[in-house]
């Protein structure tokens, strides 16, 4: 597969009245298939930053204290993607007895993915399908066709079950429903946050991975951007683990800019590539 | 602190019609404060067992396939406990800026601990208290006093919010409510499964840990057994991570025996010791 | 339409430790299309009974105080049904502007029928169908095909939204889901409790009515018994209004018998008759 | 008790693109203790209005079709209040066996008042108190003290249980929680919508009634206005029954004015009067 380059920029401006701690998860992850270079995190006015790796997957986080007044946090980097294109007709689902130990927690229900409530729902819809990539692809299609993408229709406490009833949501909800359905069927699935080339309007994005053929394979039930242009920030059980910003106290986000650009325009709009960058 | 010895036995008998995979989490964990010896896991009829370490904390799990008919799984071990008795008047809550990275995920809401819905609830009740061990102890007391311990009153999908309304539950529910309240206050908290000396009737037990003074400190909101007699099996975000048995298919649990005995009777019924065995 | 006769019997035996009030709703309703004769309510040992009409529809209720020990309550009656067979190809849905005032409350969400959460769900599934009897019939079919009838799978607090996720329930749940979907589409719908000929095993039954063509038309999403053999006890917004027995205190139901027999066997098993007995 | 006069005005301006039906419930109710005179409902541009009485309590409603463009609906009336002041130290709770039949439905759970989930919660908090007016007053105080009044913190699907967890809400939520707790204790309770003198900022208001001493007694858990200045529009099981405006389709509320003025300033700010106007 040809190498792809994506230029990343994000800028968050906050205003606070009292010193307020923030945990940012906006820096792209280093993986064997995603190389990050020219990385720059600037905070203006200058503020000490504590760089952390959180969670079992080593998500990168930056912890700092916003001082009273305005603070602008700028992140930029170049991501070189050499994703494994794993599809060889054999992206099978592993039997439970074959799953690696570190994958098992991604079968458990989580805050926003109540898979324990959806066994029959998922089985009725997808139980008789051929197992493997095609089944997860059909789950993704079903979510895409069943939900309306409606900014503002959900909030931070909205869960997959809420969305299965109201049938509207945003990217995180599309991912949560897909993850919950996968887990209910015995397919390990996790949430991925990141940047996405050709996402319109530009924003951070939430997508998901299913464990197929021994790899974590990327899916996007919103079909808003090509998976080959995704740059991962972090992964977790659901959006709770990879919030772009966690604020300990009150702050006002006064502006936000997110960009992910492929300078060589190699990334077209094909929505159905099969990609693994984990 | 004096060393304590606890003899552990558990026996689970299952009956299945077709080959059925089971993941058991009944073996005691090795930690620097909990030594496990004379360990024996027998499966009758003899069955291959796949020993795993699951999750970021290295919970021990045994995966096997129950064959049609009856299977009896017996586990026994001796646990020597040398818990750190950490209380020196200084079991403080760490500020968010000081928390170690690996502890941060235990502030996130999880399937059964919806701390994101309880910020005001927790703050109204416990926000003005002195921070630290005393506050978590008061949370534990409040849970103990507010909930009725009623076997059968909750099920596998019951959450902390459900229990805060219905005000009845079992050990896992007492732990989930305590964890959710801690997290809502900014105190990392996690679920611990294990054996408990002097628990009546004998059973596996669910308790919780709060991160205080840099240690994971044990609490039991049910006050059904002394924390100094707890032997940990595993820990996780909530009960979803440490189910004693996860069945992939249908099985009947035909009998279950659990024992945790201190042969020297060193463990008395003091319910308020301050213990860390993590 | 030919007259039908149904012999009704029910017997409830309770045991209480202290005097306990009970409200029974087991007596068949008098309507212009349902004549009740030979009615007998006996309580053994003999107990004063307070006969009430509850709710705006005049549901009949019997209120009595169970004395310590055992009490047997027997009800029997003969119902002569002369249902209007309203179907003439014109069982239309009325526009909101044409609905009679007393029908409007049956568009409101109720405890077990959260229609306010299901506008998009209902519209996606049924919004483009021809309005009228056929649409409600298709809703009924969808509920029948989507839910498993599983005794014990739900409880007294289970709602339509719960059931739409778990996809199992009993007669009251099938009715609640149907009602919620109808209301979400602007079709007034209400819950009906009653006796049902040829129901196996015999029991009280819950079905529902939709307001079509100016009549309340009977439907049964469980398809467990022919609607032409339904004898109504009462109607309400949902099952909360027509519980067979409401107990103010603790009582043990030691036995229960319910019978609805057509001595002339005029009622066959046709499941799709169009009937109104309101 | 001295007569009180309240001048009522409300004005709602809507804009629609296509003909859109609206049901308004803004006209004050006629009761033996609340006389309505000088009543005027004007719609500009002139539109036919269908006057209805909905529900078992005879709530007054106006149904009309908004034509494309802007419509202004103005209501004004004079309400003369001669409330019964029922408190003579004997506003007792009736035993279930003594409750009138038409009151029983107000013990049932409703969409926004899930009393069936709160038996233990309500009993733990209020079970040992003296029954009667004082107990309901203490429930009202508890709700007032436990919830923050926060405009925008809840939405049209928010229920009493939601609010008991999040501990914020608006007038309808304060009423719903109070109603749910009353019903859980066996006290019939219902929702009342209306106008309120001295409410700041002026708006329609939601309060509740408990059935005590054979009367429906007014309470306001928000304590935002004196109950002696309440003018009832309608009552129902919860807010679902008495929405000020029900729209069948899309409309924009472009402005809204509500006024309730006592020209003689007889109504002071005493918040604890005991009043019945049902």
Short recap of the structure:
The structure is a homotetramer of 278-residue chains. Chain A is an alpha+beta fold and 278 residues long.
Q: Return the string of H and E elements of chain A.
A: EEEEEEHHEHEHEEEEEE
CATH fold node name of one domain in chain A = C8orf32 fold
What best-fitting shape of chain A do the alpha-carbon axes yield? globular
Please give the oligomerization state of what you see: homotetramer
CATH architecture of one domain in chain A: Roll
- Unreliable parts of chain A: none
InterPro entries (chains A, B, C, D): Bact_transglu_N_2 (IPR048930), Papain-like_cys_pep_sf (IPR038765), Transglutaminase-like (IPR002931)
Protein name (chains A, B, C, D): Transglutaminase-like domain-containing protein
Pfam family, one (chains A, B, C, D): Bact_transglu_N_2
């Amino acid at each position: 597969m040809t190498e792809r380059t994506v230029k990343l920029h994000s800028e968050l401006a906050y205003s606070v009245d009292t010193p307020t701690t923030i945990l940012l998860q906006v820096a792209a992850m280093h993986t064997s298939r995603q190389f990050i270079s020219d990385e720059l995190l600037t905070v203006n006015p200058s503020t000490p930053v504590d760089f952390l790796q959180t969670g079992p997957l080593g998500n990168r986080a930056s912890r700092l204290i916003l001082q009273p007044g305005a603070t602008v946090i700028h992140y930029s980097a170049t991501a070189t993607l050499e994703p494994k294109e794993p599809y060889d007709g054999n992206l099978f689902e592993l039997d439970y007895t074959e799953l690696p130990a570190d994958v098992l927690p991604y079968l458990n229900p989580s805050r926003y993915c109540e898979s324990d409530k959806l066994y029959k729902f998922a089985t009725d819809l997808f139980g008789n399908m051929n197992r493997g990539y095609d089944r997860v692809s059909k789950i993704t299609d079903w979510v895409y066709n069943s939900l309306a993408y409606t900014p503002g229709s959900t909030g931070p406490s909205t869960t997959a079950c809420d969305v299965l009833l109201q049938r509207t949501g945003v990217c995180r909800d599309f991912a949560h429903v897909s993850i919950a359905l996968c887990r209910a069927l015995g397919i390990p699935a996790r949430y991925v946050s990141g940047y996405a080339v050709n996402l319109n309007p530009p924003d951070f994005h939430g997508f998901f991975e299913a464990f197929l053929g021994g790899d974590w394979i990327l899916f996007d039930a919103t079909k808003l951007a090509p998976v080959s242009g995704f740059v991962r920030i972090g992964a977790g059980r659901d959006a709770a683990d990879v919030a772009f910003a966690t604020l300990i106290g009150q702050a006002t986000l006064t502006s936000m800019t997110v960009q992910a650009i492929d300078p060589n325009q190699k990334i077209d709009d094909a929505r159905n590539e099969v990609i693994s960058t984990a």
